[in-house]
Amino acid sequence: MRMRAALLGAAAMAAAVPADAQTPAPGQTCEDGRCRVRLTPDQLLHAVEKAVADKQFDAAEPMLRALARAPGYTFQIRFLTGFIAAGRGQWGKAADQYKAILADDPSQTQVRIELARAFMQLGQYGAADKQFQVIERTRDLSPEFARTIRTVRTTIRANRPWQFDIAAGIAPDTNINNATAADTVTVMLGDTPIPLDLDRAARAQSGLGITARASGSVRLPVAAKVSAIADLDVSGTEYKGGAYDTYIGQAAAGAEYQLSAATRVSLQGVAAQRWFGGPAVSRQFGLRAGAQTTLDPRRRLGLQLDARHTDALFNDQFSGWQYAAYGTFEQALTTTQVLSVGPYVRRDALSSDAFSSTEIGGTVGVGGELKWGINFGASLGAARTAFDAPMRFFSPDSRRDWQVFTRATLGNRKLRVLGLSPQLNWSVTRVDSNYRFYKTTRSRFELTLARYF
């Protein structure tokens, strides 16, 4: 916000501009084809705005440099610099100025509109769509402008052929093998419980990993309201020694149908594979169906159904079918902050009844943009898992688990390295089980470079 009283009392500033670019004004003196005008910062800002509106960009730039010497005008200077760059077709430079403004104050809707326009001109349709999605949440949008944004977003989704994101960094982890923290466990010899000491290799191991993730998607219109869609997600973490290296890859392909302007459904075939310590340990094949509807610009509902068969390459007792249903409800708290709730239920029908289970759980989270370039996210979840039959080696009773998981994310989009910004993720998972061997705690940090725009 401008400190008008202080600025009006500031000393007058001088800006030298070409004589033919100025309209004579009180206090103007000209000599040798150059004119000098003494203006207060507010008067100078008004002159810049008029020059920009008249597309006299060469005249506006020296006045902007003069205005930069006055305190409290950073926002106006950045916006006008971006607007001039856009007027000259320098869309990358314009986008950088708008992003700098939003990093300090994400509530500037007009700036976000200009940023979305710059992204459209740069061909970065996915980034533009994200900005329009935020703009839609603004409470005081006129009905006409809201309809325009919906139309633009529909056009983007129909014509955006692909998108790709990547992140990489380091990951300190207190339990890289996801093992028990217990030193001893009790096993059953007939009806007699016997305590046994666990080998160190069977207990939780800490380590520092190098982690990376990449994801991409393709959407190609093939008919009216129908698009072919494909997704690819890969992630991996390497640890010293390689015994606990983990890699996961998943691909999906199918079709999406637009039921209405607010609702779309999809069906895809899914294939996934997981590697642990070198060799592949499991493969999955199946189907997933999804539906998503926008109730209004501030609320959205989603549902995903998933059915897949697992081939456990390390132990056939873990092979079988997995069925799951995931729900999502999103509610905008402000223009740039969103609350999400995600209930789910999953059924593992495996070869062994002792490893087959039903899990019911859910998460609640909040995230978005803050001032000073801060992006944040926080979520809390819990789940209850009931297994079909006991593992008689451990107990005559069936296994019952409670799981609690939390995640926090903090980043700063003002800091950029090769177009990416630093992000810190912290996740904690705790499992409490009536089988001591399966009680675990895992805390994992990730310091990565991630994309915000």
Give me the secondary-structure topology.
Layout: H1 4-8, E1 13-18, E2 28-31, E3 34-39, H2 41-53, H3 57-67, H4 74-87, H5 91-104, H6 109-122, H7 125-136, H8 143-159, E4 162-173, E5 184-189, E6 192-197, E7 207-223, E8 226-238, E9 246-258, E10 263-276, E11 280-296, E12 299-312, E13 320-332, E14 337-350, E15 357-369, E16 374-390, E17 398-412, E18 421-433, E19 440-450
Antiparallel strand pairs: 1-3, 2-3, 4-7, 4-19, 5-6, 7-8, 8-9, 9-10, 10-11, 11-12, 12-13, 13-14, 14-15, 15-16, 16-17, 17-18, 18-19
Helix pairs in contact: 2-3, 2-4, 3-4, 4-5, 5-6, 6-7, 7-8
What is the structure about, briefly put?
The chain has 453 residues and is an alpha+beta fold. The chain contains eight helices and 19 strands. It folds into two domains: 4-159, Alpha Horseshoe (Serine Threonine Protein Phosphatase 5, Tetratricopeptide repeat); 162-450, monomeric porin ompg (Porin), CATH 2.40.160.40.
What can you tell me about this protein's structure?
The longest helix is centred in the middle third of the chain and has 17 residues, at 143-159. Helix content is 22%, strand content 49%. The model is unreliable at 1-27 (pLDDT under 50). The chain is an alpha+beta fold. It is elongated, with a radius of gyration of 29 Å. A hairpin with an 8-residue loop joins strand 17 and strand 18. The protein has two domains: 4-159, Alpha Horseshoe (Serine Threonine Protein Phosphatase 5, Tetratricopeptide repeat), CATH 1.25.40.10; 162-450, Beta Barrel (Porin), CATH 2.40.160. The protein contains eight helices and 19 strands. It has helices at residues 4-8, 41-53, 57-67, 74-87, 91-104, 109-122, 125-136, 143-159; strands spanning 13-18, 28-31, 34-39, 162-173, 184-189, 192-197, 207-223, 226-238, 246-258, 263-276, 280-296, 299-312, 320-332, 337-350, 357-369, 374-390, 398-412, 421-433, 440-450. A 14-stranded antiparallel barrel has the order 4-7-8-9-10-11-12-13-14-15-16-17-18-19. Strands 1-3-2 form a three-stranded antiparallel sheet. A two-stranded antiparallel ribbon has the order 5-6. Helix 2 runs parallel beside helix 4 and helix 7 packs antiparallel against helix 8 (143-159).
